[in-house]
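Subject: design request, 216 residues
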């Protein structure tokens, strides 16, 4: 949202160009939000020797959707509870985000999380969790997991709904949490678990949004 220079804007990848004279199209996906947003799109054509056309810009309104929980972590007080080590840091272009190790690489033998306030999915179906993550995690040995606290198979406990390791640039992830449709007093957490050797930068978390469709 907002107008920035062409080179500073978020780039959208498209397939290889079609033959001359054919119509091109692409799909741009946005994470849901309870707030209406104004978006600006700009297009330049670059030929095989680097010549650029003038920019063509359009503006579009992205409507709001009903949300259960939405937090970009930019408020004065966060409604998420952090375990030891977690803190909010400023990231250019994003404002405040949560990270497990703000002063460097994460510790070995670490197990800690940030945990949301309680929320309800009563009267909803097809519930989804959207979350922005960036991470550098030792592959196959350490992991960052997204977990939900609720009832499944007649037991109420924390269960993993997504897991990440290796290296991942900022990306919005849509996670299916429909197994918890209709439940109340749910919580979500982002958890980092590490082993006894090798540490990396860790995980950064931003823009958590939970949505669901009315179950009519």
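Subject: RE: design request

Done. Sequence follows.
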């Amino acid at each position: 949202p907002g107008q920035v220079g062409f080179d500073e804007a978020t780039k959208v990848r498209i397939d290889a160009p079609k033959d001359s004279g054919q119509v091109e199209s692409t799909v741009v996906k946005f994470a849901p939000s309870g707030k209406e947003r104004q978006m600006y799109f700009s297009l330049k054509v670059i030929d095989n020797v680097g010549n650029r056309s003038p920019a063509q810009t359009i503006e579009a309104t992205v409507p709001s959707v009903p949300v259960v929980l939405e937090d970009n972590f930019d408020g004065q007080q966060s409604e998420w509870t952090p375990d030891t080590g977690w803190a909010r840091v400023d990231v250019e272009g994003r404002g405040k985000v949560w990270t497990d190790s703000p002063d460097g690489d994460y510790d070995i033998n670490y197990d800690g999380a940030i945990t949301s306030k309680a929320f309800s999915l009563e009267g909803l179906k097809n519930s989804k969790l959207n979350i922005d993550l960036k991470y550098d995690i030792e592959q196959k040995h350490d992991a960052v997991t997204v977990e939900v606290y609720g009832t499944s198979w007649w037991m109420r406990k924390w269960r993993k709904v997504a897991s990440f390791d290796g290296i991942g640039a900022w990306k919005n992830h849509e996670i299916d949490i429909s197994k918890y449709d209709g439940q109340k007093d749910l919580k979500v957490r982002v958890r980092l678990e590490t082993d006894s050797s090798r540490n990396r930068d860790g995980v950064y978390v931003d823009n958590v949004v939970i949505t669901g469709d009315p179950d009519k």
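The longest strand covers residues 124-137.
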